[in-house]
Write the structure tokens for this entry.
Amino acid sequence: MKKQIIDFRIIDRKMLAGDRYALLKLVVADGSQLPEGIRAGQFAQVDAGCKGVMLRRPISINKIDYATGELWLLVRDAGRGTHAITRLSEGDMLNMVLPLGNTFSYPAAGSKVLLVGGGVGVAPMLQLGIELKAMGTDPVFLLGARSQTDLLELDEFSRTGKVHVTTEDGSMGVRGFVTDHPAMNERYDMVYCCGPAPMMKSVARSARKSGSACEVSLENMMACGLGACLCCVEKTVKGNVCVCTEGPVFNIDQLTWN
């Protein structure tokens, strides 16, 4: 799909989890249509518009609604660039390069699927769940966080499918990590996952143990988003590849994880 550089306008901004995350709702600034064919798993390279920050920041597509013309980004305040993005206001502009990266695969309609997200890794799981539901598959979500206050977009996930929750402090759902939830012991046609690398590797081990196919969306550091800087290289069974161009979505059989 052809990459485009587009100015977006923020029409709504909501701070979440103690102001550590911002949910930004955007429309194309000139009133034109959203680029066609954007799918779950893809991301945008966002210009932070911040003095001293030269590189764009890679942000997963959280939700895209062609009927309303809205594109949502869920942004974690993790550094100077993302801090500037999270502190923008309604009416402010964001320049983005999109769509970048590959997408999750679709199972057959009616397949048994589990979508696992941790931290800001829940972002692509929402759009994926929406797409799966539209194709006749009922998504089941498993969302993990440190505490109840760190769980993100629960209302949106609940409107899309069944939601399981784990928290490390036990303040909501099952105490522990996502792999401590009984749902991880079942066999699925596909397990999808995005979050911190240790979490994804643990989910991958659980999926292999249960005989479930599994795809993960890697969160390697991406500086350029075009495969030129080599910051996001990941070792695979076919050699080293750039996550920003060959991923970010990989079947775990492609990776060298044990």
